[in-house]
Design a protein that fits this description.
single chain, binds iron/sulfur cluster, Rossmann fold, 12 strands, 351 residues, 2 domains, alpha/beta, eight-stranded mixed beta sheet
């Protein structure tokens, strides 16, 4: 990864995150089940997802398109379309409160101010007819009641925080006058205006070229550290999170199939799906030869395969995989894997 220029120190840093409630995590998703009810049937998109996050921590949530990673994030934000989505059961606890039980007015207070989200497509998230400085300032005026002059000053600070060169002189520029990477920085600045304690980044670099991807990832890592935010990075690309994440939750067919700290997972995956994802990352030290891929396609969530949902694609499959749903196995290093042969896959001894 190229080394980015260090971020300027903000003269007025956002308030540090508040402490985790005693005995709990800052954010905790517990046994979440979500289905989509459509004219064609019921799609079980989230099937018992649990994960947690503490201040200053980065969790990467990884999976192919349709694995449920973005739907979980939308449920945390409270922006799921209901219907067709229906939260069947589970809890989303933030600082000890279950967000799913909060009235919409209180939910709105949490959204953006406590937990914020940035999206893949910065261009469509920004309003094309207003200058970016105005858009950042408007958030500050509307939600924090700042005066016009204070909002302008703070907008410059935020643009400097996300390393936009010549920030003060670019306040009057429109979104189309920024490159893709710079637009993503503007959107991150807008999101940081509310000083959230949890930032969810949903595929924040997918639309960008590789060098800019690395710069945005490094920026998010710097901001997380400097502001003590908790960060959830949603991605389909295991390659982009290696240097940034503390832990990785791998999702498949609406379940977390492996959850481990980043080093253990890269060193020796304990689920065949994770192993397949790792083997499909291009490596600079392996020139020539064919890149490995995971055979088959993700399942139709209206007809999830019996037993282990990954069994039609799994090179380790046995009859028990077709008949019995695997539960989470806890391995020696504390990681979990929803595979009957987790230890064998980890040790790479399965037949
Ligand atoms: Fe493969 Fe069986 Fe493990 Fe599922 S339970 S991932 S099919 S080995």
């Amino acid at each position: 990864m190229p080394t980015p220029t260090p971020p300027p120190t903000p003269s007025q840093p956002p308030t540090p995150a508040s402490p985790t409630p005693p005995g709990g995590h800052l954010l905790e998703v517990q046994d979440l089940h979500i289905e989509f009810r459509t004219g064609e049937g019921v799609a079980k998109v989230i099937n018992g997802v649990s994960y947690h996050l503490d201040p200053g921590e980065t969790l990467a949530v990884l999976g192919e398109s349709g694995s449920g990673k973005s739907v979980t994030a939308q449920a945390i934000m409270g922006i799921l379309d209901t219907p067709p989505a229906h939260i069947r059961s589970g809890q989303i606890r933030y600082q000890g409160r279950d967000l799913l039980e909060l009235p919409e007015e209180q939910r709105r207070q949490v959204r953006g101010k406590e937990i914020a989200m940035i999206f893949q497509d910065a261009l469509s998230a920004l309003n094309p007819v207003f200058p970016v400085g105005w858009q950042i300032g408007e958030t500050l005026r509307q939600r924090l009641g700042m005066s016009r002059a204070d909002a302008r000053r703070r907008a410059v600070q935020l643009m400097e925080l996300v390393q936009i060169p010549g920030a003060a002189s670019r306040l009057g520029d429109y979104p189309h006058q920024f490159s893709g990477g710079m637009r993503q920085r503007v959107m991150i600045a807008m999101t940081l205006a509310m000083e959230p304690k949890v930032l969810i980044a949903d595929e924040p670099t997918t639309a960008l070229d590789v060098t800019v991807q690395a710069q945005i990832m490094d920026l998010l890592a710097d901001l997380r550290r400097d502001l003590n935010m908790a960060l959830i990075l949603i991605t389909h690309d295991l390659g982009v999170v290696a240097d940034v994440a503390d832990r990785i939750a791998v999702m498949y067919a609406g379940r977390i199939v492996e959850h481990a700290d980043v080093r253990s997972l890269y060193r020796a995956p304990a689920h065949p799906y994770t192993k397949g994802l790792l083997e499909s990352i291009p490596r600079l030290d392996q020139r020539g030869g064919k890149l490995s891929t995971i055979r088959g396609l993700p399942p139709n969530l209206m007809r999830i395969p019996s037993g282990c949902p990954f069994h039609p694609r799994c090179p380790y499959v046995q009859q028990v995989c077709v008949d019995v749903v695997p539960h989470d196995l806890v391995l020696g290093d504390g990681r979990t894997s929803a595979c009957h042969f987790a230890q064998e896959v980890h040790d790479d001894r399965a037949s």
